[in-house]
Design a protein that fits this description.
Chain lengths: 361, 644
């Protein structure tokens, strides 16, 4: 780009107005807001941070300088000087159309004159329209309520509680001078496209230049601190957590175990009837032994555990060892370890005394 | 009107029968007839919404006919706020799926349509069943068509994925069946000889704590696999990746919801004591699933797998909402079920569109599609942002309700609930991360593959398939009230009823046999007082504040059966029964600090009848004599002998 003022006159004018406004040149809207902010930064001090107000003000002023500088650098590189693209691009530039220029003009008018909504007190030109605009919001947050300059240093105030005119004028002058300096500096370096001087400045401040070119590596920092660890964690979760542990050891482990057991068990089913009968014998012995030879079994018959329990022959467990006689010989079962208890059907133990804990309502 | 649900259940089966009897190769005709039946079903289901009475918490359109009288099994169906919208989602998604598969499934197209219609009946049946045997029948019936859809019309690894899906879910169902049978037996015992598997009857039975613990986990085993909850989720990515597009849409849209619905309808109401305690475990697993699913989704190279893992993450929210047992949380969980069904359904359709054109699902194969497929990019964007939970779209409403409900009014007693909810909220951010990552890789940037320059945009059929989903995603996000106002009364009643029967279970904590709720009802005039005294008010006071205001929970009256503090309860804290003394069941540990509650006698000391209480009193008396151990032993003895 460069030299586009010939091709896009309206865009250039509105762009210039907006640049002047954002740089804080008087009568443009940016001037008033910037002035207001710098003034309150300068005048409001808290007792916990003495001197901070001046430091903040200086930072603000330096930033104002850079704002003016980079905006006008942009303006000069785009609209002034000579076109730096090729001939084809230059001849095929689309002419301006009202559908784009009209909104630009509306915005430029606002940028130029919107500041008169909030004339500083020193001009004494009627009420400060925006001064009280946000007060209802600010008042709700504790400690910021009340008069606008509530934290202002008393030596900077006049009798009415407003900041002294001399201070306000002085600050205003300082910010205007700084903004003009930024504009002039940009003009000196970029009036006719990138100059030799701009190149030498860049070489002199190469460290700062590179840092700002890389956006101070904030994106890289986020990438390193947040994005990469989380993505790495996601990979671990998927490959180790899901594929190895849950699916590999868990699901496939269970399936594999069942399959392996099935394969082992399959070899027993070889059609050998003698083997089947042997297994049947052992199995039957285990079932009969655990149920019918269990020393805890008192009797067999309809369940007495509960009157409406499922019927059927269910072993009744009891505390007494049962005597089992095989061919006239009584098997020597050991007595069960539990103490004897009342036989089924006997009355339950007597109630606790009336003053038992938790008793009675 | 009572037969409406029967019509809804019969229509798809009829359609499936008609389609299945068509001659082989008549794919277009089969698809046309199937689509006709599905649309008819959708139209037939509209009276469900128009005839649904707003503000009624209980079942509507109820229909009860004896089925197996010998065991009290009924054909008993009905719809309430929890199931209404998911039924509607089912009837909406089925025609979309059949129409969406118009071109992509032409091999054995007739059988495919028949399977989808059968699946629709099974899903609606599981949603409206109010009898556990009936529910289980439909629950298992769902598996067969779905496994066939994956196994016949899926991608390369389809058979392995179908078997994995079938076995995985079958294992959970087996546990549930045992618990269902136990419930029937318990009802038989409690009522002294009446068989019933009807949900309303079973809810009148108060089980013992042990039975509740085991039955709860048996039900959860089935439902958590279906949801799927964190450690049992691995069937889902495989099933989704291998399933054909309509299979994935139905799987994500409705089948997963049935897991959450089952928790809501069965696991939590039937086993309130265990649910109240084990909900902490579920909530922790859900939150792990939210973050874990999101992280894993982010690193997927397969677009469909990415969306599958996003389901794991999103379903975690739903389980968290249910585990919280707050009114907002339950409404949010139901709403999120709808939202997830719509958004994830649309996302799977979108990936199906890409797969139809390029026969690959790898994200790296695409890029810059927004230029060649602008309509598709727009539809995809709305569905994706809806899934990410952007305010104004459907995903936001459900997630917000769940998070706020669980944080402020939840029934979780865990101290770490605020931390848990905060971690869950980070899942929302991670959701945006992986979804926008997917969108950026597919849609923006340069077109790297020459094949992608000639891709055709959505045709009219595909646009119309997407349209209802996209319209609903926006409409439900902007104006959720018609949906939530039909869910809310049911959520309120569910929370109140849950607290009431949780309280009854606490009174029955030392019982050995299931009893009827009516025998304990007079002790539960102020359930929250009893619950908070048993578990301690570990949550901020506001957690219980809203619950107290619920209609179903009466205010405490002076004459209410709030037991006075026993003078010597402190002397032997072991004697008064606690509902939980098994460390496995109580994440906080059995001897956790209860604060001032320690000095109060737990409610069960008040139960007048029953051998166990006599044992308690006896034991306490022994404790007074200074021989606590003997007392305990005696109590154990009595316990062994009691219950005749």
């Amino acid at each position: 780009m460069g030299g586009l003022k010939e091709k896009m006159p309206w865009t250039r004018i509105t762009f210039l107005v907006s640049c002047l406004a954002i740089s804080g040149i008087p009568i443009f809207s940016g001037f008033f807001s910037k002035d207001e902010i710098l003034l309150s930064a300068y005048a409001n001090a808290s007792e916990w941070t003495p001197g901070l107000n001046y430091a903040l003000w200086i930072v603000g002023v330096i930033t104002a300088f850079f704002t003016a500088f980079y905006m006008f650098r942009l303006y000069y590189l785009v609209f002034e000087g000579k076109f730096r693209g090729d001939h084809h691009t230059w001849t095929h530039y689309v002419t301006e159309h009202w559908i784009m220029t009209f909104p630009l003009i509306v915005l430029a008018v606002g940028a130029a004159f919107g500041g008169f909504l909030g004339i500083p007190h020193v001009f004494h030109m009627g009420p400060h329209v925006l001064g009280e605009w946000l007060e209802p919001i600010i008042a709700t947050s504790d400690g910021f309520g009340g008069e606008f300059f509530v934290g202002a240093r008393p030596e900077l105030l006049d009798e009415e509680g407003h900041v002294l005119s001399s201070v306000e004028w002085g600050l205003m002058a300082a910010s205007v001078v700084v903004a003009l300096a930024g504009i002039l500096f940009a003009r000196a370096l970029y009036k006719d496209g990138p100059s030799q001087a701009a190149e030498s400045w860049r070489a002199r401040l190469s460290a700062l230049y590179n840092a700002s070119l890389a956006k101070y590596w904030v994106d890289e920092l986020y990438d390193f601190v947040v994005v990469r660890p989380l993505r790495f964690l996601g990979g671990i979760c998927y490959q180790v957590g899901d594929q190895l542990i849950v699916d590999g050891l868990g699901v496939s482990g269970v399936a594999g175990t069942v399959g392996a057991l099935g394969n082992r068990a399959r070899t027993w089913h070889n059609g050998n009837v003698r083997r089947y009968l042997t297994v049947l014998l052992f199995g039957g012995a285990i079932v009969v032994g655990t149920v019918y030879l269990n020393p805890q079994v008192v009797e067999f018959g309809p369940s007495k555990i509960h009157p409406i329990d499922l019927g059927g022959l269910r072993p009744q467990l009891g505390a007494h060892p049962v005597k089992i006689t095989v061919l006239g010989y009584t098997l020597p079962w050991p007595a069960p370890p539990t103490a004897p208890r009342p036989a089924p059907g006997q009355a339950p133990p007597p109630d606790a005394p009336a003053d038992a804990p938790g008793g009675g309502r | 009107m009572t037969a409406l649900l029967a019509v809804l259940l019969a229509l798809p089966v009829l359609g499936a029968l008609v389609v299945a009897t068509l001659p082989q190769g008549e794919t277009r005709m089969a698809q046309g007839i199937g689509l006709g039946f599905a649309v008819l079903e959708l139209l037939a289901s509209i009276p469900l919404v128009t005839g649904f009475e707003v503000g009624v918490a209980g079942m509507q359109f109820e229909h009860k006919v004896a089925w197996i009288p010998a065991f009290g099994v009924h054909y008993h169906v009905g719809v309430d706020g929890f199931s209404l919208w998911i039924v509607m989602l089912t009837t909406l998604l089925t025609p979309i799926c059949i129409w969406g598969a118009w071109r992509s499934i032409e091999k054995r197209g007739g059988e495919f349509v028949a399977a989808m219609l059968l699946l629709e009946t099974a899903m609606i049946g599981a949603l409206v069943s109010l009898d556990l045997i009936l529910f289980f029948t439909f629950w298992e019936l769902m598996l067969v068509p779905m496994a066939l859809v994956i196994g016949i019309w899926g991608s390369e690894q389809r058979v392995a994925a179908a078997i994995k899906f079938f076995l995985y879910t079958m294992v959970g169902s087996a546990f549930m069946l045992v618990a269902i049978i136990y419930l029937g037996v318990a009802h038989h015992e409690a009522t002294r000889g009446v068989w019933s598997f009807d949900l309303a009857d079973l809810r009148q039975v108060v089980l013992t704590p042990e039975a509740q613990f085991w039955c709860f986990w048996a039900f959860i085993a089935s439902f958590a696999i279906k949801v799927p909850l964190f450690p049992v989720h691995t069937w889902l990515p495989d099933a989704h990746t291998q399933a054909p597009t309509p299979g994935s849409v139905i799987l994500a849209g409705v089948l997963l919801k049935l897991g959450a619905y089952g928790m809501l309808r069965f696991a939590f109401p039937l086993f309130p004591l265990a649910a109240g305690e084990q909900a902490q475990v579920l909530a922790i697993l859900a939150v792990i699933g939210i973050v874990y699913g999101a992280l894993v989704a982010w690193v997927q190279s397969d677009a469909k797998r990415l969306v599958a893992y996003s389901s794991v993450s999103h379903m975690g929210f739903i389980v968290l909402g249910i585990a919280g047992m707050s009114t907002q949380g339950l409404t949010g969980a139901t709403f999120q079920s709808l939202g997830h069904g719509l958004t994830t359904g649309a996302l799977f359709l979108a990936i199906g569109v890409l797969y139809e054109r390029r026969h690959t699902r790898l994200i790296s194969e695409f890029g810059g599609l927004a230029r060649t497929m602008p309509i598709f990019a727009g539809m995809f964007m709305i569905a994706l942002l809806g899934s990410a939970g952007v305010p104004g779209l459907v995903g936001f409403v459900g997630e917000f309700l769940i998070l706020i409900g669980t944080y402020t009014h939840g029934g979780l007693t865990l101290r770490a609930v605020p931390v848990l909810v905060t971690i869950a909220a980070t899942g929302v951010i991670l959701g945006v991360v992986y979804l926008l990552h997917l969108y950026q890789k597919l849609m923006f940037g340069p077109i790297t593959q020459p094949k992608n320059t000639t891709l055709s945009d959505l045709n009219l059929r595909e646009t119309l398939v997407f349209a209802p989903l996209v319209i609903l995603i926006v409409a439900m996000g902007l104006y959720p009230e018609p949906f939530t106002k039909r869910i809310d009364p049911t959520s309120q009643a569910a929370v109140a009823d849950f607290q009431l029967r949780r309280c009854a279970s606490i009174w029955h904590a030392n019982g050995e046999r299931p009893v009827l709720l009516s025998s304990l009802a007079d002790k539960c005039t102020d359930p929250l007082a009893i619950i908070s005294r048993t578990y301690g008010d570990q949550r901020p006071a506001f957690a219980f504040a809203e619950l107290r205001a619920l209609p179903g929970i009466a205010k405490p009256t002076p004459a209410a059966a709030v037991p006075a503090p026993a003078p010597d309860a402190k002397a032997d804290p072991k004697v008064p029964p606690r509902p939980v003394n098994d460390p496995r069941k109580n994440p906080r540990g059995p001897e956790s600090k209860r604060g001032p509650q320690d000095g109060k006698a737990p409610p069960t000391a008040e139960v007048k009848a029953g051998p166990r209480v006599r044992a308690d009193r006896k034991a306490a008396g022994d404790a007074k004599a200074g021989d606590a151990k003997a007392g305990d032993a005696k109590a154990r003895d009595d316990k062994a002998g009691g219950g005749r």
